Amino acid sequence: MMGHEVGHALLKHGETLGIGFENPRFSPLEVVRVRALERAHEISCDRFGLLACQDVRVASTALFKIASGLSERWISFDETAYSRHFDDLSAMSELIDIEDASRTHPLTPLRVKALIAFSKSEAYAKAFGRTEWTLPTDEMERRIETMLSVLDPDVSELEGEDEQDAANRFLFDGALMVIGADGVVAPEEVEWLHGHFTDNTSGEVLARDLATPEFQQELQQRLEANAAILRNKLSEVGRAHLLHIMCDVALSAGGIPESEFDALNHLRELLKISVDMAQAVLQSAKSEFDEEPEQDGGKQSEGAAPPADPLEAILQQANLPYKALTAANEMCDDIRSHQMPLGVAAKTLVSWAIGASRDGGQITEAQGKKIAVAAIRVCRDMQDHSGGISKRGINPAEKLIKKYGVVTLFRRNETVYQNQEDRPYVVLSVSKVKGSVVIAPVDNLADTTEVDVRQLRKDPVNGDWPVELMNL
């Protein structure tokens, strides 16, 4: 056993304390990978133990004593016969799933069988200057890798799944479930959906679809399939970020009725998020949701009269070129046809501008920023004059500034850059009120950090923001 422990020291095996299925910062798939590495470490160090005592029977007996607590005073130990028990156990390998692969040490019969193979190998013989052996080193390693694979679940299909795509699909379907939970598709919920996804389905069509049992069944099936991927490839903390977004959906219309709370709880169960963590997520979402003071009863303040058409005023201040202006005017005509309140109309225009400025859309990113800045200026002017009008008594200009300022230029799952670094990060979640986002390096999604969006760039070259947005 001293030789085994010396092996750990010589091979510089690191501590992995705290890594387990119960740790919310690690995904099950990450735990499985670490545990497989730890079991391989134990096999390597068993070889050091054999090199130290130079007797495979002594080394095997030591492993059996540690596992059983029994000595040869009570039993007659035969290492070859004992190693055959592993063959019986390996027949059940197809029953191993991802949560069963949590052992830090291999099964003792496996360790004994691996020691016997090593004692017959070319590597062991050459360690003592011998010229005869019965098992080539390559063959010995292949056999032991096969033994170790017994405790490794088949995750080949899971490895091929893209967790970001699964997260996007789950978020969209989860939002639909929450929106339709109370049987009412509110305009604010439709607005939220359009602002976060490319889907432009109208509220009427959504309400019709969500009332169809076949659609609900298909929605549930998609949610279950994507949740299975996310449960294994994302940590509980990462899954909690998704639940936070679902809470934003529920809060977008002003509160969470019991039916929507039940839908959120169902999504929590699908993602296997603990009740305590889910409660913390809900409280965080509620605290971020801005409950603005009610308007001042229509009291007028001094200053210039508000524009007759705020949308037209926004486009005038944006000073767009002809092609971009034509596209923006078409959107404004559509907004006017729905007779939206000022706050909803302005936010809808900003959301469209951001979406249309992405990935070679109808306008450029710079033009999208101009529309955002102009919308903020116009809404401030409206606020100064009359305090604005809102269905829920929330000042639309303040709501726009807090929720649709710089932060709306970022979307979940996109790649960004921090300050002057060239290291790419992924946006995991967006807090509109706080003006911050949670990001993680693209190569380590568990290493999350919450940062002010003004520290981020959307490309490695030009990330400057207009002064009006920087001062929000």
SSE arrangement, N to C:
HHHHHHHHHHHHHHHHHHHHHEEEEEH
Q: Over all CA atoms, what is the radius of gyration?
A: 30 Å
Tell me, rounded to a whole number, the average pLDDT.
75
* Overall spatial form: elongated
Per DSSP, what share of the residues sits in E-state strands of 2 or more residues? 5-15%
Tally the helices: what do you get? Answer: 22
The profile of the biggest β sheet is:
5 strands, antiparallel
> How many strand units?
5
Strand neighbour order, sheet with most strands: 4-3-2-1-5
Proportion of residues in helical segments = 55-70%
Q: Work out the count of structural domains.
A: 4
Low-confidence stretches: 92-98, 290-303, 386-405, 461-472
| Separation of the first and last Cα atoms | 64 Å
User: Which structural class best describes the helix and strand composition?
Assistant: mainly alpha
Give a structural overview.
The longest helix has 26 residues, at 28-53. Strand 3 and strand 4 form a beta hairpin. The radius of gyration is 30 Å and the shape is elongated. The chain has helices at 2-10, 28-53, 56-68, 79-83, 85-90, 108-119, 122-127, 137-148, 156-159, 163-180, 187-196, 203-210, 213-233, 236-251, 258-271, 275-288, 310-318, 322-337, 342-356, 365-386, 396-403, 467-470; strands at 415-418, 424-431, 436-441, 449-452, 456-457. The chain is mainly alpha-helical.
Which helices and strands occur, and which strands form pairs?
Elements: H1 2-10, H2 28-53, H3 56-68, H4 79-83, H5 85-90, H6 108-119, H7 122-127, H8 137-148, H9 156-159, H10 163-180, H11 187-196, H12 203-210, H13 213-233, H14 236-251, H15 258-271, H16 275-288, H17 310-318, H18 322-337, H19 342-356, H20 365-386, H21 396-403, E1 415-418, E2 424-431, E3 436-441, E4 449-452, E5 456-457, H22 467-470
Antiparallel strand pairs: 1-2, 1-5, 2-3, 3-4
Helix pairs in contact: 1-2, 2-6, 3-6, 6-8, 10-13, 10-14, 10-15, 11-19, 14-15, 14-16, 17-20, 18-19, 19-20, 19-21, 20-21
